[in-house]
Amino acid sequence: MTGTERKVFQKYYPPDFDPSKIPRAKGQRNRQFVQRVMTPFNMQCNTCHEYIYKGKKFNMKRETAEGESYLGLKIFRFYFRCPNCLAEITFKTDLENCDYQNEHGATRLFEAVKLYQDQQKQADEQEAEDAKDPMKMLEKRTMQSRQEMEEMGNLEDLQESSRTKECVDTIGFLSATDPHLAQAQRIKMMEEEDDRMARELMGITSEGRIERRIKDYEDDGDDQSDDDKDLPGPSSSTAITLKPAIPKLGTDDNTNNRKRNEQKDRFAGIKLIKKAKPSETADTPLTSSTSSSTSSAPVPSVVTPVPGPSGLSLLAGYGSDSDSD
């Protein structure tokens, strides 16, 4: 049979095919087969103490264990050699525990799963034995109830101790024990102190208002305004609270009237004198002494300049002289 014939799914059977006529091969009763198998557990060789870990692949020989079966199922035995010293190692299947059993040439290493399974199996067997004896069952129930009462008492003690610790200041305890937390609190206190000093220098109160101090000043006499005269003397200092100006309705007319009165008071001592016409300047004297003597208030003297001959009049006169000549 070639390789291509081996891979086909449908094979040709002639019409006269009779499978009973196929000769059967004669072989040994306990024949060994070569099979590629992985080690089912961690083991150590007894000859050279080489460690062979679970999952390592070997070409093993498989045979059927004679005289051994479990519920009518055959048990197989596997043979392989140590990769270091070539010592023969054997193990077989354990159908009862769904596992493999070490037989010869190596020692099985510790496995937590295997230990747990063994302990669970022993506990189940012990429980089955106790179920048959009523006195043992009564003793077991008594021990369980006593253990439950002890656990409840321990739980109540823990709850009582936790209630007494509720009044403990955990933040203070942590700040006292943790140096990093204490350093953070010191830095925070320093920042708060710096903010307080800055607010004092800027004159900001705790309410958010700004206050400024007016220093003592000397009296300058006439340079001091009327508003400054209302302030206290040089030996005292006054704190002025700056507040935003609140506009008032209906005060525009009062403000305009006040400005007009101030302008009138400023220009009260100044008199305006109109410029005299040229016809009136010849008749009126240059100075008015009589008015100054009779008036009670001093009036400044005004000199009105006499206009000279214009250029057109001179040109007209020059033309008339030439015609006469």
UniProtKB/TrEMBL annotation:
GO terms for molecular function: metal ion binding. Residues 255-268 have a biased composition (Basic and acidic residues). GO terms for cellular component: U2-type catalytic step 1 spliceosome. It is found in: Nucleus. PANTHER family: SPLICING FACTOR YJU2. Residues 281-313 have a biased composition (Low complexity). Component of the spliceosome. Present in the activated B complex, the catalytically activated B* complex which catalyzes the branching, the catalytic step 1 C complex catalyzing the exon ligation, and the postcatalytic P complex containing the ligated exons (mRNA) and the excised lariat intron. This is Splicing factor YJU2. Residues 217-229 have a biased composition (Acidic residues). Belongs to the CWC16 family. YJU2 subfamily. It comes from the Eukaryota. Residues 217-325 are annotated as: Disordered. Part of the spliceosome which catalyzes two sequential transesterification reactions, first the excision of the non-coding intron from pre-mRNA and then the ligation of the coding exons to form the mature mRNA. Plays a role in stabilizing the structure of the spliceosome catalytic core and docking of the branch helix into the active site, producing 5'-exon and lariat intron-3'-intermediates. Zn(2+) binds at C45, C48, C82, C85. Its main location: nucleus. Keywords: Metal-binding, mRNA processing, mRNA splicing, Nucleus, Spliceosome, Zinc. GO terms for biological process: generation of catalytic spliceosome for first transesterification step.
